[in-house]
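Amino acid chain:
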Amino acid sequence: MSHYKELKKVTTNSLIEMKEAGVKISMLTAYDYTFALIVDGAGIDVILVGDSASNVMAGHVSTLPITLDQMIYHAQSVVRATNRALVVCDLPFGSYQGNSKNALESSIRIMKEAEAHAIKLEGGEEVVESVKRILTAGIPVMGHLGLTPQSIFKFGTYNVRAKEEKEAEKLLHDAELLEEAGCFALVLEKIPAKLAEQVAKNLKIPVIGIGAGGGVDGQVLVLHDMLGMTKEFNPRFLRRYLNLHDEITNAVGKYIDDVKSKDFPNASEQY
């Protein structure tokens, strides 16, 4: 059993202390009460209520369709289950882009209605004004650079980002801008490990990677992927810790058989 759960409640400040002490930060997604209870109880540092709920929970092909109301519902469920972890909620597509007033209003709704501890948004220079404005309300902001799934139609692909020098330079610049604007942490998604390590060295704030190598300050994965509940998603960066897809399929199959054969319920399973 993980001994990390003995630690006190995780705050944005404790993440910065962890980086300074060289302690890696563990982060996973969760979208509902039951999973959040398990993940928090196991001792995770950060729970991300990700807009990946759009894919994992709702079956959309991208993160774009999920609404602010739906994100708040997921975040409320997660917060009710959480005692120790820092809960960060994604601002969904359309709730902050190009409009810092809208970004602030969306963030206030997440903090007020879901009682999350922080918000996360995607982008660099183009969202700096929004970051600053959200911070004026005392709301902590986590940044997200590299592969930003809300911009999938701009990229046209989910391939590795920032392999070219120009894009790598912009990413380094954007990371520094986000730190200066006041972000407490930064997620880097699917970029070369060497570049991610450089960003983590350049910044005082913690850098959490997904497909960004081991030179960063922490890691994040989508819970349903690392538990092996999803089958079709096989990126190089994903380590599956269980094969729940097959386990659950077998369990459901056994239940069906037992019902059909009248084995369930047996004499001791009724009143």
